[in-house]
Amino acid sequence: MYEFKSLDNGGFGKFQRRMFYLSSLGLFLDGYDLSIITMAMLVIPVQLHLGFNEKVYVDTSSFIGMLIGAPLLGRLSDKIGRKKIFGLDLLFFVVFAITAGLSSNFYELFISRLLMGFGIGGDYPISSTMMSEFSPKNSRGKLLLGMVGMYWLGAFISAVMNYIFVVFNDFWRYTFIIGGIIALPLILMRLKIPESPRWLAANGKIRDAENVLNEISGSNKIENASTNEKRVHGFYFTFTFVIVAWFVFDVAAYGLGFYYPLIFSELGFKNNFRSIAEISMVISVGGMLGYVIALPLSDRIGRRFLTIGGFFIMTLLLTLGSVVKIAGIAAVPFYFSFVLFEQWVGAVTLFYPTELFATDVRSTVQGIATASSRVGAILGIVIFPYYPVFKSLLFFAIISFAGLLVAIFMAPETNKKSLEQNVEMYAKKNPKL
Questions:
Q1: What is the pLDDT of residues 195-214, one digit of tens each?
Q2: CATH topology assigned to domain 2-426
Q3: Would 26 disulfide with which of 123, 277, 284, 291, CB 3.0-4.6 Å?
């Protein structure tokens, strides 16, 4: 294992800014797509004559694709390198977002969204790993949180697109295709990013790693790791935590988040698509505000605080919502507040694996954790339609409380430590995956 002090102790320079924006693209597109499909599914079942089961399949199709793409491309990234996949994975989004917009029946729409999800799922482990491996240790939390926060910027832009195009009966076709067009030039820019020096060094390509370091930091010094951190937990304990915590979070987050347009339709805004689009914008602002508040906390107070605090407030708000039965315009500030605080958990559970595991398995574990989270998302999405809104809130409150217990007893602290120090403390002696 090697140390990269010029990266760990460096500042937030021109390269890191570029890396941040390009790594954030996948999360931006995921947020855009989720908000697009939630609004679109208010009209697609009628226009494409979908039965109940077909509607559920379309609802979950991109998540199924992510469930497959994340572990496969994550493992491939550890084997052949980050750069070879970084950018190409999102070509799936470009192509199949456009074909989804052109779909004329269930099969075309389902396959398009499945393959689009495959690409987005594969981008989760690759982009977050790249960002983590290039970030200074004292601002890594801020950068990773900001990257995940781009999800809600994508959600906001999609709400704007819905608001503009909802005047057309088949507005969803325009919004799907626009998403694919947005991604294309940014993918081309990704192809110019160099390979991760940590991956190069881990695979014996020391000179190449030194060249990349010199290019981005002005120093090519790579040293053998001399960390003497006390071991806190082993590989399997930490692996179990990142799998379970993200799974539990996504059950509640996607179980509700996927149905915000439907929820507000049932709580007083039925068939008022313009109002629902406006509410979606407001909810998206709540998500972005959550990240604005969390950004300075992540590198000062730490990841444990955000994870435990976020799960606690999620549990509190969901329990309150199930008892008080908030409806009408009062539901807007309620869900605004929920989204604001849930993002504390969502961001940290997403990037925890990239801070805790060694370079040779980092993207693999991140891919497996992403797949686990998509199982949770699918579970939440499937459960919600079978129960009234307020009973669903109670179920998700119980799930969030389980997440709170997991966080209290298992969440590690990775703040202000190099990736190599975190591996030493929490996941040393990783098995062959």
A1: 999 999 989 898 988 888 88
A2: Growth Hormone; Chain: A; (1.20.1250)
A3: 123
